[in-house]
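Appendix B. Raw example, untouched.
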Amino acid sequence: MKNSLARRNLIARNNGEHTHNFAQILIGWQGEVECEFRRGSRRLNNGIVAIVPNSTDHLFNGLSENSELLVVDVVQDDPYIQALEQTCQITLSETLFKQPEFISLTPKIIPLLDFAASQLLLSKDQNNPQLNCQIVSLFITQLCQIHSPNIPELNPVANKRLDAARMNDIIDRRLATPPSNLELANALYLSESHFYCICQHQFGLTPQQYVMSRRMQRANFMLLYSKKPLAVLASELGFSDASSFSRAYKKYYQEPPGRSRRSMNLGFVEAGK
């Protein structure tokens, strides 16, 4: 395995013993799973976490049909994990994964388990880099804060800022063929996953939501200052036809583009009286 991965694991009543060449976070979500290390054991239920360092033998035993864990496989050579360590100024092998242990999540974090589980269920691609970035960083940073509360800042993107002007320029030059996350990340000299996380943190939007906001702002401007037909505007803004453009515009502004154009023109007429 080359990259860290967040996933759901239905243990049910299965049991076994194994070890692997990557660290792991086992988070109790539904039912109960008995987890045992050489120096102790504990039942993993909702909010109880087992920290499994690299190459650590551990046993598991599902205690009910619905016993399910949220699992984060942490690969030390994963560039995102290395960037996380560098940004947070920590070494996971010497802090969170120094030894096998059990940790209880705080009450404010526990509701995030259902969110993570639902997102993983909805994702058809287990290797979705954006989702993995979000969940892996979420639980690692929260667990590090619980494990080492003296670390002042464990948000991998808190002090990182995107050059919004450059990003807007890239998008605005490509309205007819909107850039992908990877293209934007490359232009800003970031990995795709890191770019995704910083964008969400800085703007409260995913990269493609941000791209859509720029397209819609341009659409609104063109409706106001041009008389181009909707089909022409749709083409210039990267939509396949006028219908798809109208749907996107209505979703964003809560009214169809034709109504926006009429109301804006009416405003100009009344202002000129």
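End of appendix B.
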